[in-house]
Amino acid sequence: MTEFDPSKAVRQGNAAQLSKIMELDPTTADLWTGRDLPAMLRHQLAASLEFDLGSFKLAGPAVRNRKHALAEAAAAGVRSFADLLFRPEPPFELLKLSKEFFKARTQVCHKSSPEWKVAYLFYLLSILAAGEHAPTLSTLPSADLFRAAGWALKQTWVDEKTRERILAARKRLPV
Amino acid sequence: MKRAPSRRPDASWPWPTTQWSASGHLPSSLHRDSDRLNDLILKYQSPLKAYLLAAFPGMEDEAQELLQDFTEGRILKKGWLNKAERGRGRFRDLLKMSLKNFVRDRLRARQAEVVSMEGLSSDLSAEENGSEAFGMEWARAILVEVLRRMEIDCRKPRGKKLNRVQIWEIFRLRLLQPILEDAEPVSYEDLVSRFGISSPSAAQNLLITGKRIFCRHLNAVIAEYEESSGAARAELRDLRQFLSRLAHEKKE
């Protein structure tokens, strides 16, 4: 296979191709496609808590608390989002951080883009994983959380294990 | 006033590389601006050739010679550049018009020749084809230069910021190559495994940063020949509209 040469390709490019390049814009929602969603979900589940939650902007004592929570979780073998969210009794402090992290992600992603969908799913999972403590973690009424869980269950890219987790967590929501 | 780009042409530029300032063709009044003039000539040579070939079909054999004569007889002519720079609309349009008149004058002087009659019959649609070819060559030249600079920028060592090379590679694999080869983009999973990306947020940041770097270089290249920020914005808008219109027309 010949190596792709951008200059050569541009010189041979047609108007439609050049137009797409000329229109590239950091603010448009064209990073990933729906086909990427299952891989993005797997990637996020496997991602290190330390990497995502450790770099999340916090101030004051919250920084120290985070460091402590991450270190404690790592010592208990909770290192990835899968470790955190599929655990029967996940550390509340980390769920709170995770919820805030993904809430912030949903605010910087274009609504309904693949990256927004993944961030929103993890925002929900962070709340739902708190079980009966969910109302402490979020001001969302149970009915809204129930509806949101319904949205997540309708997503075809959500794997079986995550689906089961959502179903189980939904049952534990206070009525 | 239009300003020629400050960068020096090199082998990566697609245009012929005659060094006009060193060729003895440069009028003495423009010697102080010789670099600028070289850039100007080199920058427009390929779009002008594309225009000439499309607007005057049948002149392929003499296109190079005509362009050479046009450069010597018009662009390098004393006072022409100053006249061109006195805010008479877009510089590229003036160049096209000037070349068209130059070729027509030349053909009139050789009316008896068959090829000249073909050339003189240049009609409105040939003129449109010429303008289209010129615009396409212009857009290509800009994008080639933008991508060249972006790659150099990303590959430049920057201490601990090692992921700049990743930014270029991801931009190339995920955006450029699929667009230019009408191919499926490399899958998310492949990208993540190939570059050892830690999380979806990191992947997103890399790709958005790539687009930002691209836009920064695009604006910089345009700003080198459109002096004011307003003119540069208008130029980018015009280029986008031109390509979009052409893409739409070709699809129909």
Short description:
The complex is a heterodimer of chains A (175) and B (252). With 175 residues, chain A is an all-alpha fold.
Fold and architecture overview:
The complex is a heterodimer of chains A (175) and B (252). With 175 residues, chain A is an all-alpha fold. Chain A is built from eleven helices and no strands. The longest helix of chain A is centred in the middle third of the chain and has 17 residues. Chain A is globular and about 60 Å long. The model of chain A has no long low-confidence stretch (mean pLDDT 91). The N terminus of chain B is likely disordered. With 252 residues, chain B is an all-alpha fold. In chain B, helix 1 crosses helix 2 and helix 6 runs antiparallel to helix 7. Chains A and B meet through helix 1, helix 2, helix 3 and helix 8 of A and helix 6, helix 7, helix 8, helix 9 and helix 10 of B.
Q: What gross morphology of chain A would you assign?
A: globular
Strand content of chain B: under 5%
Rounded to an integer in angstroms, the radius of gyration calculated over CA atoms of chain A is: 19 Å
- Whole-Å distance between the termini of chain A? 60 Å
Number of strands of chain B: 0
User: What's the overall average pLDDT of chain B, rounded?
Assistant: 77
* N-to-C order of helices and strands of chain B: HHHHHHHHHH
Q: Largest inter-chain interface?
A: A-B, 39 and 48 residues
Helix content of chain B: 55-70%
Q: Can you summarize the main beta sheet of chain B?
A: none
What's the helix count of chain B?
10
Oligomer: heterodimer
Helix content of chain A: 55-70%
Shape of chain B: elongated
